[in-house]
Amino acid sequence: MVAEDEEVLREQLVEMLGAAWPELELVAKAEDGAQAIRALEAHRPEVMFLDIQMPEASGLDVARRASGRCHVVFVTAYDQFAVSAFEQGAIDYVMKPLSAERIATAVRRVQERLRSTPANLEALVDGLQAAPRANGAHLRWIRASCGQDIQLITTDEILYFQSDTKYTRVVARAREGLIRKSLKELVDALDPFTFWQVHRATVVNLNAIERVTRDLHGHLVLRLRERKETLSVSESFAHLFRQM
Description:
By secondary structure, this protein is of the alpha/beta class. 30% of the residues lie in helices and 29% in strands. The longest helix has 14 residues, at 7-20. It starts with a strand and ends in a 12-residue tail after the last strand. The strands form four sheets. It has a five-stranded parallel β-sheet with strand order 2-1-3-4-5, sandwiched between helices. Strands 10-9-8-12-11 form a five-stranded antiparallel β-sheet, with no helix packed on it. It contains seven helices and 15 strands.
């Protein structure tokens, strides 16, 4: 079973697994955590490739349900998640962006353990949910949609995020894209020493700010180093800049 919320990556993972393990029978594909839990109960797979960050229910919630019942390979963009999962009994982890070579290695490790009892993941899940981003394991890159394409943008490149109806815009110096994550999810995942929420609809990279000014009404405005547009700071976040 494969659980991954991004369609392009989900299909890429399925394709790579098919190439690395031709005998593999894919019993289900899930695009969010709730769907993954239903598929787990309905199909009872032997092996699950599981994205940690998914809407509806997180991959960690799914892993808790799969604990002791199913061999789990975590698919993650977080180094700390990956290292902890590997060291505490999960079969393996695969870091994004995906590579055919790394998938093939994970497949070999799965095959070696198929006759053993699946790992108990309760302690791992408890630890990661209690401190999911310990030791600096913050979001390192974003996969954003641009038309039919998926762009991989490192967080160092990103100047700001801005809510746009049901999507969030990801804006870099010379490109931008859309993601389905809410600003709240992003604030929880980003490095708080680098990214600040400055408006209910805006999160900015502090390194992107050239100067802070006031408009004709006395409201704070952020001018960026590498983009012409300005960003408004709402009154509830103005205190962040008073000591700067």
